[in-house]
């Protein structure tokens, strides 16, 4: 028995290594970089150590979770950064070691090497993890780094060099071809004095920032005609440190943040610096008192400048006060090398690439934006409701491959279907704080006419809460479900709501907060809303019929309980004159059982039971024709609805006849009988 671990995970052999099984349920991918596209659902991209470059969905409109099989390899080798084409995600660029970069076609699988060459044959030094960047002003243009900055305006077919050597060009550190330790370096892993990061400004096409693996930070403000080495102006930075990331500001063209680390020289301190004047001066954003571990990545929210994130060797940190203070994010995220951070511009998700724990997504960080913009005052409110993201009435397919995968294959957590609702809750009730029962916030959904169409009470805790509305209006209780004893029982869900704008009302005591949520159809499908509108009367009528049957079952259960209580009284009285009444009770019970079995299945049946001949089956038959219907009412709906109503009326007639005759007679007999539990007592005396 052998267990072998490598950059791709674990392998197990049960026959001394003759055959191996790859362990597919461990999410231990080692991402160097992370990226995204603008598809819907959007995709996540990244390269993995020794395991190629990949693309996979951020979430899926399918049953179940995000399967391993949904991920597609784009380019093999040691995987690094991946840049999808902004205008067409079918195409993009992926890399491997020694500066190899290819343009891929996702549909056909075609890849074409587009690695730059020097026009005069000069040797180009590409980092193991070379720098690549999309031109923000030209969808077909990209930047690539060796010791020079290369630029292509035609998707890598042709290149030009737009910089001098931006590294220290220390020739004493360029002898990887002569040595490599025990063996020669055949992979490019020991290439040094190379460019690590290229960051074009999103605000000014003339501004480009560059970082190297030997401590240089370079800047051009004239699109490469001239360059400034800013390294000596970054006071407190380590000499010869790595510059794996530079993040240009989306608010100010003169501003950027430089990420540096120096652990390769046994310096484990965090280094991250910010300039607001094109590098003339720098300010440190975090030190060892703020974060644990050397810094690997950084991102600033594109809409709220006070909201910032840092990734270190030991986790994720967040600031909501413009980097004045930092807090480690521990909810659902491990202590792990946090290599790269991106914020999706449409869905406002924080996308995280880790080295060893694969990729994570923090859905919708807009609540953090609001907290940052309010100086954190929102956290102290008794009840505050954050902006809600658009909710999609997605059509979910079955998962690909085997339906039941059990536990041998990893399945990533999928985004929940429905409207995501995030709010702050703080209770001021001492009684409630000491109670073992969780507090509840009442959620009401109102349509455009102001009518409440759904009510749910959610358990909450102090702080930020996130709950979901499943995009269903109020339904009716099924005949199989007894009447709830507790008044706060969850309201049953009914038909899916129509697309449109809805108001969500949250309340707790006197505190009330409202937000609108926009519900849209699946964007992949052209749906005629008129068809959906025309189905609503059918839903309504079907629920009215179901409600009448449920009322019948409630009455039958109630009547059975009454007979049972009467029988217990008769047993206590033990009066011979009540024998006839006991027989009558048995007849009534049998009659109720017959009526009950007209509507629902007999009790005691095991396994899956589908009985088309019982009334609940006849009425429920239309549900399958209504489910996911996009084409509007049809003849099947009309036939099934008429049949359900006709069959229901037959049963209602029998039930009503029973209660008008047999039950009334039984009730009269019980009322006439002497069933009082009380008797007269004489005074007790000592004899």
Describe the structure.
- This protein is an alpha+beta fold and 687 residues long.
- Among the domains are: 393-401 and 413-521, Immunoglobulin-like (Sandwich), CATH 2.60.40; 529-672.
- It has seven helices and 42 strands.
- The protein has a five-stranded mixed sheet with strand order 33-42-41-36-37, with no helix packed on it.
- β22 and β23 form a beta hairpin.
- α3 (529-573) packs antiparallel against α4 (579-599), α3 runs parallel beside α7 (635-672) and α4 (579-599) runs antiparallel to α7.
- The longest helix has 45 residues, at 529-573.
- The chain is elongated and about 115 Å long.
- The mean pLDDT is 94.
Note the main attributes of this structure.
687 residues, alpha+beta, Immunoglobulin-like, 42 strands, elongated
Short characterization:
With 687 residues, this protein is α+β, with helices and mostly antiparallel strands. It is built from seven helices and 42 strands.
Topology:
Layout: E1 2-6, E2 9-13, E3 21-22, E4 35-36, E5 43-47, E6 53-57, E7 66-67, E8 72-75, E9 82-84, E10 91-95, E11 101-105, E12 111-113, E13 132-134, E14 142-145, E15 149-152, E16 160-161, E17 195-200, E18 208-212, E19 217-220, E20 228-229, E21 242-248, E22 256-262, E23 267-275, E24 283-284, E25 295-300, E26 308-312, E27 315-319, E28 327-329, E29 338-343, E30 350-354, E31 359-362, H1 366-373, E32 383-385, E33 391-393, E34 411-412, E35 419-425, H2 430-434, E36 439-446, E37 452-460, E38 463-469, E39 472-474, E40 493-496, E41 500-508, E42 511-521, H3 529-573, H4 579-599, H5 615-620, H6 623-626, H7 635-672
Parallel strand pairs: 33-42
Antiparallel strand pairs: 1-2, 2-3, 4-5, 5-6, 6-8, 7-34, 9-10, 10-11, 11-12, 13-14, 14-15, 15-16, 17-18, 18-19, 19-20, 21-22, 22-23, 23-24, 25-26, 26-27, 27-28, 29-30, 30-31, 32-35, 35-38, 36-37, 36-41, 39-40, 41-42
Helix pairs in contact: 3-4, 3-7, 4-7
């Amino acid at each position: 028995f052998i267990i072998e671990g490598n950059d791709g995970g674990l392998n197990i052999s049960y026959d001394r290594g003759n055959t191996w099984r790859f362990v597919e349920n461990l999410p231990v991918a080692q991402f160097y970089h992370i990226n995204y596209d603008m598809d819907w659902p959007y995709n996540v991209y990244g390269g993995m150590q020794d395991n190629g470059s990949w693309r996979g969905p951020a979430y899926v409109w399918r049953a179940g979770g995000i399967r391993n099989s949904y991920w597609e390899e784009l380019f093999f080798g040691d995987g690094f950064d991946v840049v999808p084409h902004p205008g067409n995600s079918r195409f993009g660029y992926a890399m491997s070691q020694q500066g190899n970069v290819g343009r891929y076609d996702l549909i056909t699988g075609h890849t074409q090497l587009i690695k730059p060459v020097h026009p005069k044959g000069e040797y180009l030094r590409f980092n193991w993890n070379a720098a690549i960047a999309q031109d923000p002003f030209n969808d077909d243009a990209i930047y690539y780094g060796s010791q020079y900055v290369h630029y292509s305006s035609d998707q890598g077919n042709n290149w030009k060099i737009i910089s001098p050597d931006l590294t220290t060009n220390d020739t004493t550190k360029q002898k990887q071809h002569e040595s490599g330790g025990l063996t020669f370096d055949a992979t490019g892993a020991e290439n040094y004095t190379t460019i690590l990061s290229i960051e074009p400004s999103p605000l000014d096409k003339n501004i480009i920032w560059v970082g190297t693996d030997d401590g240089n930070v370079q800047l051009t403000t004239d699109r490469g005609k001239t360059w400034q080495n800013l390294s000596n102006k970054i006071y407190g930075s380590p000499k010869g440190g790595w510059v794996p990331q530079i993040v240009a500001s989306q608010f100010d063209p003169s501003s950027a943040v430089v990420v540096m680390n120096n652990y390769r020289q046994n310096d484990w301190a965090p280094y991250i610096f910010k300039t607001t004047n094109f590098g003339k001066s720098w300010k440190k954003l975090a030190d060892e008192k703020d974060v644990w571990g050397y810094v690997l990545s950084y991102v600033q929210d594109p809409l709220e400048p006070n909201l910032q994130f840092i990734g270190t060797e030991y986790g994720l940190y967040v600031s909501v006060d413009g980097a004045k203070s930092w807090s480690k994010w521990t909810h659902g995220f491990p202590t792990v090398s946090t290599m790269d951070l991106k914020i999706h511009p449409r869905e406002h998700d924080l996308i995280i690439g880790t080295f060893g724990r694969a990729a994570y997504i923090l859905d919708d960080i807009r609540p953090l934006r609001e907290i940052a913009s309010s100086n954190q005052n929102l956290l102290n409110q008794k009840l505050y409701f954050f902006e809600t993201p658009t909710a999609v009435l997605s059509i979910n397919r079955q998962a690909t491959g085997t339906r039941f995968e059990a536990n041998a294959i990893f399945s990533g957590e999928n985004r929940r279907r429905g409207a995501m609702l995030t709010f702050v809750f703080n209770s001021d009730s001492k009684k409630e704080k000491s109670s073992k029962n969780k507090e509840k916030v009442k959620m009401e959904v109102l349509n455009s006419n102001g009518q409440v169409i759904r009510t749910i009470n959610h358990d909450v805790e102090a702080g930020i809460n996130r709950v979901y509305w499943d995009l269903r209006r109020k339904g009716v209780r099924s005949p199989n479900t007894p009447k709830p004893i507790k008044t706060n029982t969850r309201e049953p869900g009914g038909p899916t709501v129509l697309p449109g704008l809805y108001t969500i009302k949250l309340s707790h005591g006197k505190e009330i907060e409202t937000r609108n949520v926009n519900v849209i159809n699946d964007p992949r499908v052209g749906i005629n809303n008129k068809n959906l509108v025309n189905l609503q009367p059918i839903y309504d009528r079907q629920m009215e019929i179901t409600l009448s049957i449920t009322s019948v079952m409630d009455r039958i259960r109630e009547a059975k309980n009454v007979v049972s209580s009467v029988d217990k009284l008769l047993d206590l009285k033990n009066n011979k004159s009540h024998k006839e009444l006991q027989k009558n009770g048995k007849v009534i019970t049998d009659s109720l059982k017959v009526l009950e079995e007209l509507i629902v299945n007999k009790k005691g049946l095991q396994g899956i039971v589908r009985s088309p001949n019982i009334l609940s089956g006849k009425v429920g038959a239309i549900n399958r024709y209504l489910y996911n219907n996009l084409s509007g009412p049809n003849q099947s709906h009309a036939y099934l609805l008429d049949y359900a109503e006709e069959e229901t009326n037959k049963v209602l007639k029998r039930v009503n006849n029973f209660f008008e005759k047999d039950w009334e007679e039984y009730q009269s007999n019980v009322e006439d009988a002497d069933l009082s539990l009380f008797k007269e007592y004489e005074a007790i005396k000592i004899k």
